[in-house]
Design goal:
Blueprint: E1 2-3, H1 10-21, H2 27-34, E2 37-42, H3 46-61, E3 65-66, E4 75-80, H4 85-104, E5 109-113, H5 114-120, H6 122-127, E6 133-135, H7 143-153, E7 157-159, E8 181-185, E9 187-188, H8 199-202, E10 207-208, H9 211-223, E11 228-232, H10 248-257, E12 264-268, H11 277-285, E13 292-294, H12 302-308, H13 314-327, E14 332-339, H14 346-359, E15 363-368, H15 386-409, E16 415-423, E17 429-433, E18 439-443, E19 454-462, E20 467-471
Parallel strand pairs: 1-7, 2-3, 2-4, 4-5, 5-6, 6-7, 8-11, 11-12, 13-14, 14-15, 18-20
Antiparallel strand pairs: 9-10, 16-17, 16-19, 17-18, 19-20
Helix pairs in contact: 11-13, 14-15
Bound molecules: iron/sulfur cluster.
């Protein structure tokens, strides 16, 4: 087993790999790589989805072709997420199944990527020795190189280097296939250290891509047929701060919005503490910027927010919501909420219930707190009972569902613009998103509709998870 680096010895790791990887003359290896089929299983957030696109692109460049399904793949990449215990368990159970298969098919290569890989490193190979490569988020750009090395040497590799000021390589347009709507990574990492979150430890400190690289990639996407782009980062509002640039994110939005051919621009995710008035003003100025803001609140209680190290108070959060609504009265606001954080008492929970009533979120992703190894909150003593967490989550979701339904019903009779993204099972059924990022299922004449069209749809019914209507 070869360990290639940790956060302190990245240069050592690079030297090791380069020395061993310099022998590119082995014809057997090249032939082996050319016939390989790869399959990627992705868990977690949009950052992971985007990383999987990058991995697919790099494997494609190394002569891998996509496998139709996991059972026919010669190489399986499990791109893991450690934000919640459930996603981690699912990934590890998949790894277990692949390990059994590998005993019968030693040719199978197994790669574990993503946040669990970064966090657990060598422990994954200790637990499942059939794993060929454990690779962290900053290392994925060298994944094909490592796989080639594993194939040649027959030895497992742990590649979990993590450095500050990591320069995100500019790969250009890496989307696997043309698509009308695409994610574009503008930064990686996070400096916020919320006490429940593992991201700063697995993805490192914030590092922003140069604006010129982002704009060039957006242009390539648009040239390939994309008309909607979502700028992606763990905390996009602080884009550029790692380079000492203030208000760089509003400036970036203006640059991308100015590109001819782009129709819709979105971004996610944001920490409320970094939402500046200049960013709120962008919703007034930029026609292409969609009226949707995902603004995770996590809790409505100042006491809990402080324990979470969120660095804003409830009143400040509400001020930012008001500023957004002033700049863009029809803006849709969505959020993330954790219930049952250590020490959360009934009064804290009721403060969160009161907050969702006050803000009236279009929708909310809500979860029971689950301690993540390696985070500060995992060491807190005052854990909330599982049954109590479940009770609070049920109550919160029931209230939020009512609010979502009330808001969606307000669309009944209105006409919304929909970007057509796919068709339903039956003829004449289509789906897409409104500018507010609401899912719209609608009927239309198949001969007159195609994926990528922008249509006007009259909403007949507002449901809990979507709007239903008819193209007009
Ligand atoms: S802002 Fe907090 S929750 Fe979001 S990625 Fe950073 S540490 Fe995690």
């Amino acid at each position: 087993m070869q360990v290639v680096g940790d956060s302190r010895h990245r240069s050592v790791k690079r030297t090791l790999v380069r020395e061993q990887g310099d022998n590119k003359e082995d014809p057997a290896t090249c032939e082996q790589l050319q016939i390989m089929k790869a399959y990627i299983e992705t868990f977690g957030c949009q950052m992971n989805e985007r990383d999987s696109e990058i991995i697919a692109h790099l494997l494609g460049r190394a002569s891998y072709s996509p496998a139709a399904d996991i059972d026919t793949a010669d190489l399986v990449v499990i791109n893991t997420c450690s934000i919640r215990g459930k996603a981690e368990q699912k990934a590890m159970s998949l790894l277990g199944r692949l390990a059994i298969r590998k005993k019968k098919e030693p040719r199978l290569k197994i790669v574990v990527a993503g946040c669990v890989a970064q966090q657990e490193g060598q422990k994954i190979i200790d637990r499942v020795p059939q794993t060929d490569l454990v690779i962290g988020p900053q290392e994925i750009y060298r994944l094909a190189e490592y796989v080639e090395e594993v194939t040649r040497s027959g030895k497992s590799i742990v590649a979990t280097g993590l450095i500050d000021n990591f320069a995100i390589p500019n790969l250009g347009h890496v989307s696997p296939a043309p698509a009308v709507s695409r994610f574009l990574t503008i930064m990686q990492g996070c400096n916020n250290f919320c006490t429940y979150c593992i991201v700063p430890y697995t993805r490192g400190r914030e590092t922003s891509r140069p604006a010129a690289d982002i704009v060039a990639e957006a242009e390539e996407m648009i040239d390939s047929g994309t008309t909607e782009i979502t700028l992606l980062g763990q905390n996009v509002n602080s884009y550029g701060l790692d380079r000492g640039e203030k208000e760089a994110f509003p400036a970036l939005l203006r640059q991308v919005a100015a590109l001819p051919g782009l129709k819709r621009l979105r971004f996610t995710t944001s920490n409320p503490k970094d939402l500046s008035p200049a960013l709120a003003d962008c919703f007034k100025e930029l026609d292409k910027l969609c009226p949707w803001f995902h603004l995770p609140v996590q809790s409505g209680s100042d006491r809990v927010l402080e324990k979470m190290n969120r660095k804003y108070k409830r009143a400040e959060y509400l001020e930012r919501v008001a500023a957004l609504r002033k700049a863009c009265p029809n803006i849709a606001i969505t959020t993330d909420i954790i219930v049952g954080f250590p020490g959360e008492e009934e009064t804290d929970f009721l403060a969160t219930m009161e907050l969702i009533k006050q803000v009236r979120y279009n929708s909310a992703y809500s979860f029971k707190y689950s301690p993540r190894p390696g985070t500060v909150a995992a060491g807190f003593a005052d854990m909330v009972e599982e049954t109590e967490k479940s009770r609070r989550l049920t109550a919160l979701q029931a209230r939020q569902n009512e609010i979502t339904l009330e808001i969606n019903r307000e669309y009944e009779g209105k006409i919304v613009e929909v970007l057509v993204e796919g068709c339903g099972r039956d003829p004449g059924q289509w789906r897409g998103h409104s500018p507010e990022n609401l899912v719209v299922n609608f009927t239309a004449d198949d001969k007159k509709v195609g994926i990528g069209d922008y249509l006007q749809v009259k909403i007949g019914r507002g449901c809990k998870n979507s709007l239903r209507g008819k193209a007009v």
